[in-house]
Design a protein that fits this description.
331 residues; 0% strand
Amino acid sequence: MHEKTYTTDVYRMTTKLLELNPEYYTVWNYRRRLLRSFFPGIPKPCPGDVQDSDHPRETEIIRQYIVDDLAFLLPLLRKFPKCYWIWNYRLWLLDEASRRLPSSKALEIWRRELGLVGKMLSLDSRNFHGWGYRRKVISQLERLSAETNSSSVSMTEDEFAYTTKMIESNLSNFSAWHRRSKLIPKLLEEREASHTERRGFLDNELELIQRALWADPDSKDQSLWFYHQYLIGNFEPEPAQDSIIPSLSIEDRLSYIKAQIEDLKDMLDGAETCKWIYQRLIDLALMSESLNDRWRVGVDSSGVASWIDNLAELDPLRKGRWDDLKSQFNR
């Protein structure tokens, strides 16, 4: 490596080393240098170039190197699906395709990647490497499609539908819930959703997560509760700018909070050992207090104190936090 020997023999040696142990990040970096030394020296295509008729042979050589190296990585990904270096190197190859190939040829390669990552997630639906990789693939497909078609191309609707499919097959898919929460602001913006449409969307999402929670109320699955927390964040006195429905009135917020509290109280029956229910009830009580209407939603200090006592018993490691919360409600 120190001698910077860029030959096919050395290239084959890196293949053998990485097949034995793909954690050799230095070998991956050297393989990058090797591959770049093999690429013919042709001008990089300008963004939006669909075809490159001036250097067809050189372009095909680069394309073939990239395609062959992508194929080399497949068995490694099957054997080591959570190795950072394999994923990083694969993304580097695809970025090289975007930089060095005409948009139409790069688009073909990225489209194949979407099919590949779909198959991988069907085998391991909660692999966060796969989900992060899929986000990158979608982003590049949208960009390259726009360059090729000279118009804006969005895959947000398709991706949102994909999260629904993955959640329905496995409710504990944290990555799918997280991806869904990140897609929603863009989805609603692209739909140019009205206030009424946004409210209907929020109602549907609340119904979806409540069905999931009721499927196993005593579940310790954090992914469901984190998404529930994201949704009730819309009832905060000052919700985030990218919230589902930022213009919700105080009266409507209080109505939603009351409905959520009643639903969680019902959920407690038979699930008294689930700390997440108590924690979410307390969160909603805090929101209610911030809206200056704690009593109106059926929350009193003694009820909140009882929830906090139960929570402290279930989660003694955070007893100081729960005691502090209790003092807030007793003021």
